[in-house]
Structure formats: structure tokens, C-alpha cells
From TrEMBL:
Transmembrane residue ranges: none
All copies of domain Gfo/Idh/MocA-like oxidoreductase N-terminal, residue ranges: 1-117
Domain GFO/IDH/MocA-like oxidoreductase: residue ranges: 128-250
Originating organism: Deinococcus peraridilitoris (strain DSM 19664 / LMG 22246 / CIP 109416 / KR-200)
Top-level taxonomy: Bacteria, Thermotogati, Deinococcota, Deinococci, Deinococcales
SUPFAM superfamilies assigned to the protein according to its UniProt record, in alphabetical order: Glyceraldehyde-3-phosphate dehydrogenase-like, C-terminal domain, NAD(P)-binding Rossmann-fold domains
Name used for this protein in its record: Putative dehydrogenase
InterPro entries per UniProt: Gfo/Idh/MocA-like_OxRdtase_N (IPR000683), Gfo/Idh/MocA_Oxidoreductases (IPR051450), GFO_IDH_MocA-like_dom (IPR055170), NAD(P)-bd_dom_sf (IPR036291)
GO MF terms, alphabetically ordered: nucleotide binding
Amino acid sequence: MRIGFLGFSHVHAEGYLALLRAMPGVEVVGFSEDGPQARDDETRTGLKHYPSAHVLLGEGLNGAIVCSETSLHRVLVEQAAAAGTPVLCEKPIATTLEDALAMKRACDSRGVLFMTAFPMRFDSASLELRHAVQSGELGEILGVNGVNHSENPAAHRAWFADPLLAGGGAVMDHVVHLVDLLRWVLKSEVVEVYAQVQRSPSSAVDTAGLLLITLGNGVQASIDCSWSRPADYPRWGHLKLDIVAEHGLLVVDTFAQYLTVYASGAARSPEWRGFGADPNEAMLHSFLQALERGAEPAVSWYDGYQALRVALAAYESSQLGQPVRLDSAGPGIVAGNSR
């Protein structure tokens, strides 16, 4: 299985590379990237650099992972579709709905598989949560509180804080993960968004947001998203869900399994090192299996599109100072299968 990276600027790119290199039967061919960072990435990773996505796609790839700046996703997906190469695309899938729809048209016209990179669907705690909700074990769901915090990723990849390249800040970066989990677990679409979005004085993009959302089944949920963790915090961040239900309260803290490591002279000590299964690895396996079988991906373009709609609606709501209503699917969109 020959895999290439279209762009390598995302903070998850090197992690994906390490996981793929450990998988039997997988060859990572190389990456395409513009700018001065490309040579550093090639030297550090030992991965071959290609001058353009077009050249890399000409190497006979079985699949491509789009890990570029978000604003470049559209052109890279369109190039992959033109080459007939299936795509795993980082989230958010685009900075605008127009770009997201263009990506769908490109893939549909060539029958090319498109999978959205939402690894939290493959997390063991998330899977147990979904079973508990959909089996009826918890009874009626009364409400959900969601939290997704992290460091400011601009310290690692500066483009995350560039509004033209990223399309936004903490809201774009974090809301999409929780929205996808809520849609997947509750099997319902978001129909209303009310949000307050703020940014720190030194940032060109938002660094915090609080959303109150309503789903089509009547469940209300809050999403607290921020880049509030300091650089010396023991771990990157966390993702939590509190499910308030008829028969009890279920708390999911997806990164709570960790060891506290103290190291003298370390730049970042103490450090919380997680253990257990890596949802990114399971997501990559799912993508590879879809390629091998020619099957529908576990997370579709539609899932990425719906999460993006909510993030963009949050910005609109904050600007207007009032709730924003969403139709269940989107203009001209047929609801997909959020498995």
C-alpha cells in the first residue's frame, strides 16, 4: 500500500508518519510541501520531498493524506481526485462551505473515496459512550457538556494563527471534533448554534469560544473550546464530555489514562504521558481497510461538512449576537450515513 502526504504542515503529520511506518505492507512514498519548512521536514523525518502534489500523485499512490494548511485543502483534494487517488483529509476539511462543496464535486465526479480525519470516533471511551447512549442504557439524554482545550498550536506551526490559512482559531480547531462526536453518538444533526467567541490581544485569531447548540432530537449541548493551556502544561490538552441522562451522569475524559513523568533538566516537567490504544492508529487502519476493500469510509465527507457548518455558524452567531439556525443537512445536500 503506497501512501503519500499532500502537505506536511499539520501538527499531526509526523505522528501519522510514525504510525504508518510501523504498519506492515505500508510504504510512505513522500510528501509535497511548499516553503522553507519543507527541507527541514525532509531532513528531520527522512521522508522524500516532492516539489508539488502533482509530481507526488504521479508516483502511483494508493491513497493520500492531506495535511496542509486548511486553506489549501481544496486544491490538493481536487488534484488527488483528478489523479483518481483516495483521500484522508485533516479537519476542518476546509475554511469555507464553498471549498468543501467543491471538494465533494471533485471526488464524486471521479468516484474517489474521501475520508475525514476524526480520530476520536476510534477512541475506546468514545465507542463505549456511543454504545451506552444508543443501547438505551442511559435512558433519555437530558444534556451534554463538552470541553476541548489545548496549547496554542501556533507555537509549533505558525499557520494555525493565520486567519487566511486556518480560517479561524480555537473554534475551527476544536469545535469540529466535539460536534462530530455529538452527531455520531446522538444520531442527530445540529439545528441551532449560539456562541460567544473571543481572542487574546496578541492573537489574530480566536483563542476561546463557548457554544450552546441544539440538535434535531431536542438535546442541548455546550462546547467550551480554547487554546488556554500554557506551553509548560503537562500534556497538550484534553477532550471531555459530560452526558447528563435520565439514569445517571456519564463522564468521558478521553486522555485521562496517563503516567506522570518527572525528568531532571527536562524542558517540560512533569509530563503526562498517555498509554493505551492510539485512536489515530485505528483511524489510519480504517482508512487503509477502506482502500483495500473499496468500501465506504467510516467517516465521510458529509461528516466533515456538517462539523464545519457548525464552526462557521459559531463565528456568525458571535458576530450577530444571536442564535443561528441550520437546516438539517445543508443547501442541496443529501444527508449521509454517519455510522
